[in-house]
Specification:
The protein is α/β, with parallel strands linked by helices. It contains 9 helices and 13 strands. The protein folds into 2 domains: about 110 residues, Rossmann fold; about 180 residues, Dihydrodipicolinate Reductase, domain 2, CATH 3.30.360. α1 packs across α8, α4 packs parallel to α5 and α5 packs antiparallel against α9.
C-alpha cells in the first residue's frame, strides 16, 4: 500500500485482508513513524519510510496507489517501471495525456494496471447491467443520478485545485463512469454547468449532461451539499433505482428497485436484495486473479482513458458553456 491515506487504512486494506488471492504485507509513508503505526494497527509485516522503498522491495508483486490525484500517474509509472503491477485509485490521472502514458508503460512492461473504480465489480452494478442487457426495462433511454457530501476544509486534498480536487474529479467521475458503463458506449457530446468555490477555486457543484446515441445521462455532484447518492436507469417500459450506488455498505445488503411503471405509487416495484459483500474485497481479488492467471483485468486502461476524455470535455464545456465532443 502506497501511503497511509484514510481510504487505504480504513477501507481497502481491511477489505483485501478478507480476500482469497492476495496478502497485504506492507505499507509505505514518507513518514516512517506513520508507516510503522499503520502496519502495527493493521497487522502488516512490513513498513517503509518512503514510497521508493516499498516499490523497490522484490518481495512486493503489486502496489495499490491511493495517493492524491496529482500523484497517481507519477507513482504508478514509477511502480510499473520497477516491475510492479498497479491498482490505482480513481481518477487515474488529471488529464487524458497523463492517463495515456500508462497504456504505453503497461504495454512495454507487460504488467497489469487498472483504475480502482470499485463500483465496477460490485454485484449490484453487475446485476443492473444484466437487467438492462436482458431488456427488463425495455429500450434504455436515460440514466440520471446525484452524488454529494459536505466538505469545506481548505486543507483537505479534495479542496486543493493543484491536487486535482473538486467535485467532478472526486465524485462526478463515478456518475460519468457508471453512465458510460450502463449505455455500453461513449457520449457523442457533453455539456456542463460548474460552480466554483470563490475562495478555494475548486468546483463545488457541477451538473453534467452526456448525449449518447439513443439516450441521455444527467448527473449532479457536489462537495458542499447534503450527503446523498442515488442512480436511476430508465427505459421505455420500466426503470431501475440503485439505492446506495457508490459507497455500498460492507456490513449490510444492498437493494435495487425494479419498477415496471404500472403506476406512480410503486405498485410495480420489485426489490432485489444483493447479499452483504465488500466491494474492495471483490476488486482486490479480481485484480489478484488477473495477475496470478495472467488474464485480463476487470476493465482495461483504454476504458479509463475514455472516461478521462469525458472528464476533460466536462471541464471544457463548463468553461465555454457549449456542447463539447470528448477527444
Amino acid at each position: 500500500m502506497l501511503g497511509v491515506a484514510k481510504i487505504a487504512t480504513d477501507k481497502v486494506i481491511p477489505a483485501m485482508q478478507q480476500g482469497e488471492h492476495a496478502s497485504v504485507i506492507g505499507i509505505a509513508s514518507r513518514d516512517a513513524a506513520k508507516a510503522r503505526a499503520a502496519a502495527a494497527r493493521l497487522g502488516l509485516s512490513k513498513s517503509y519510510g518512503s514510497y521508493e522503498a516499498i516499490i523497490d522491495d522484490p518481495e512486493i508483486d503489486a502496489i495499490y496507489n491511493p495517493l492524491p490525484n496529482h500523484l497517481h500517474v507519477p507513482w504508478t509509472l514509477r511502480a510499473i517501471n520497477a516491475g510492479k503491477h498497479v491498482l490505482c485509485e480513481k481518477p487515474i490521472g488529471l488529464t487524458v495525456a497523463e492517463a495515456e502514458q500508462l497504456i504505453e508503460a503497461r504495454d512495454r512492461s507487460k504488467r497489469k494496471v487498472q483504475e480502482a473504480f470499485m463500483v465496477r465489480t460490485h454485484p449490484q452494478w453487475v446485476k443492473a447491467q444484466a437487467l438492462v442487457r436482458d431488456g427488463r426495462i425495455g429500450e434504455l433511454r436515460s440514466v440520471f443520478g446525484y452524488f454529494g457530501y459536505f466538505n469545506r476544509d481548505a486543507s483537505n486534498i479534495r479542496n486543493v485545485p493543484d491536487f486535482g480536487g473538486g467535485s467532478v474529479m472526486d465524485i462526478g467521475c463515478y456518475l460519468i463512469h457508471t453512465s458510460r458503463m450502463i449505455f455500453g458506449a461513449e457520449p457523442r457530446r457533453v455539456i456542463s454547468l460548474i460552480d466554483r468555490d470563490p475562495e478555494m477555486g475548486v468546483d463545488r457543484l457541477s451538473s453534467i449532461m452526456l448525449d449518447f446515441d439513443g439516450g441521455q445521462a444527467i448527473g449532479t455532484c457536489s462537495t458542499q451539499a447534503a450527503a446523498y447518492q442515488r442512480m436511476h436507469i430508465v427505459g421505455t417500459t420500466g426503470r431501475i433505482e440503485i439505492e446506495i450506488p457508490f459507497n455500498a455498505p460492507p456490513d449490510r445488503p444492498c437493494r435495487i428497485f425494479v419498477d415496471d411503471g404500472r403506476d406512480l405509487f410503486g405498485g410495480g416495484i420489485e426489490t432485489i436484495t444483493i447479499p452483504t459483500c465488500d466491494q474492495y474485497t471483490i476488486q482486490g481479488d479480481l485484480f489478484s486473479r488477473a495477475i496470478l492467471d495472467d488474464g485480463p483485468v476487470a476493465y482495461p486502461l483504454e476504458d479509463t482513458v475514455a472516461n478521462m476524455r469525458v472528464i476533460d470535455a466536462v471541464f471544457r464545456a463548463g468553461a465555454t458553456g457549449q456542447w463539447t465532443e470528448p477527444s
